[in-house]
Every structure is written in structure tokens, then in C-alpha cells.
Amino acid sequence: MTQHTDVVVVGGGQAGIAAGYHLRRQGLGHVILDADAAPGGSWQHMWDSLHLFSPADHSSLPGRLMPAQPGETYPDAGHVVDYLTDYEKRYDLPVQHGTQVDAVHRDGDRLLVETDSGTWRARTVISATGTWSRPFVPAVPGSTDFTGRQLHTVNYHRPGDFAGQRVLVVGGGNSGAQIAADLALDDNVETTWVTQRPPRFLPDDVDGRVLFDVATARRRALDEGRSDTGGVASLGDVVAVPPVRAARDAGLLRARPMFTRLTATGVQWADGSRSDADMIIWCTGFRPALAHLAPLGLRGPRGHVATSGTLAIGEPRLHLLGYGDWTGPASATLIGVGRPARGAAQQIARQLNI
Q: Which of 40, 45, 18 is closest to 86 using CA atoms?
């Protein structure tokens, strides 16, 4: 059976429910289709020790402040899941969990959204699927020779899972540094941190509040035709959250340059020497999860869809929300997604003459 609505939102994480909040305020009929069985988006899949970069009052979606977590300056992932669950219920958002969207097609003056439980015809679609479901692992010589285990950030949960093992953590960003620190602080794990270039730690007093302000200032400068400030990337790559600082200051977080290849039992370094490893954890980032948009033929380099704000340039009935700065400054963050979500809802209301 085919159902009809004004707007289909694909994805029920922070971006999807922020969109739902603003669509409701605009009086737009909508449904939010989410592949996860429960609320919380990607936060429900994070590793145990993960905390936000920002205090709760700087980590809120539109309309509802995140309450502080008792005993924590920076809330943990479980607290974020509780907040998103409450948000969804508080605003009675029409989220259908456990619904996998397979494809979006053009269908006359509508877009046809195919799911594993039926189809929807919509006047507009907002894609808010994020990146968590599309982990990226680089092609490295010897990757099929290695006989140990290889995981990605998405598979990591806690150091106890690796007791007595030799673990290589690959990646110089925040997830790489945090997971390397998590393991290095555990005496039962032999940890080696590997990065493509020397890690750049942000000053210890920089947290998510500063990062949001810097990202917003960069976007404002670009929009006004001023020179690029460099944004967050100009400050560094790694936020010095407490576990990272502790491991760094204890001398446990020293990165080695990237190895040249994998071997059957480990890795080979640039000087020809070798090290054995039982496990490699690839903390090498993500790509936008946009496979459902493939029938529209819009994807360009690195899998991105060209946009003006959130609006897809090649399809005026499609908006993309929450994928990073290319869909709005800091739009992949809790505090940053509200503004582009509001803009998308307002633009859709104008398009549909509501």
C-alpha cells in the first residue's frame, strides 16, 4: 500500500527529529522513517566511555534544553539517548522505528519513497541519515593477508573486550584519539596508536562551545565573501577531553606514523621493521549514508550531493540535513542542527504554499 504525506524525513536521529520539530511548527504533514528499532540515533551505538565535548546546555535541540547529567560536566552517550527519547515523546513526533528506506525515486510531481514495509508518496523528502551506518576503511596493501581481527569505530565498545591483546588503533581524529586513550589507560591491553600525520591536539580549554562558535564564524565569513578563517580545522584535530588528556600527560598517547602494509601477523613500518598485532581498529571516519538517493542520480565527488544550504541543487524536492558543514555549519552536532532544520522547514513551507 502507498501512503501519502507532505514530507518524508529519512532518518530519526538528532537531525531527523529536529526536522520533525520544525515541520510541525510549520503545519506540514510528515512522517519520520528510522531504521533503528529504538530512539537515540547513532548515540545508542557509541562506545561506553564516550562523552560529549560540550555541557548539556550547549548540546540541545530546538525547543527543549538538554538537562544536566548529575555528576557530569559533559554528558555521556546514554544521557544523550535518554534526552532524544524524551524529545521524541514530548513533541509526539511521528517516528516509525524499524523502517528501512531502500530508495527514493521521482514519480511525476512527487517523490516515491520505497521502504521494507511499503511506499510513501511525498511532495518533499528530507534526507537525515547521517554517516554512522557507512564506516570508511582505507585500502591498505596486505589487508587480506592479516589473520587477526579488523574492526571499525562502530564496533568498539570497551577495553575489556581486548584484554591480553595487542591492538593497533588507526586514525588521528577524535574517535582515534579517544579509543586509543581508552585502551592505553587499561593495563591489560597493549595499545599502539597510528596516525597519517602527527596528531594536533586542541588547547586544553577548547571544548564544543568554542568549536561551534568557530564553525559558525567561518560560515558567516564565507557567506559574506570574506576570507576563509579555516574554521575548526585551523585549531587542531583532537579535542583534549579528560581521558585523552590523562593518557597524553601520562605518556601513553604517542602516535606512530602510518605503516606501509599489513602482514599476516601484524604490520610493516616504513623502515621495513614489523610489529605483531591481534587486532586493528580503524578509526578512519565515515561517508554520507546516501545509497537511498542513488536513483535520483545526484551524487558527486566523495559521495556528496551538491546543495545550496540544505536544498539539493539537482532536485528541488529534496533537502539534506545533518551531514556536516556542507549542509549547514556544525549541522552534524546537536546544537548546530537546529538552525538548518528550521531553514529547511521554512523553505519547504514556502515551496508548498503552506
A: 40
Domain 149-201+237-282 is in which class?
alpha beta
* 2-134+287-351 and 149-201+237-282, same CATH topology: yes
For the chain, the structural domain boundaries read: 2-134+287-351, 149-201+237-282
Q: Please determine, looking at this structure, whether the domain spanning 2-134+287-351 carries the CATH number 3.50.50.60.
A: yes
What share of the chain has pLDDT > 70, as a percent? 92
Over the stretch 186-206, which tens digit does the pLDDT of each residue have?
Answer: 999 999 999 999 999 988 777
What three-state secondary structure class fits 215? helix
Kind plus residue range of the DSSP H or E element containing 193:
strand 190-195
Nearest to 171 by CA among 141, 151, 143, 187: 151
pTM of the predicted structure, to 2 decimals:
0.92
Task: List, for residues 315-332, the tens digit of each pLDDT value.
Answer: 999 999 999 988 988 899
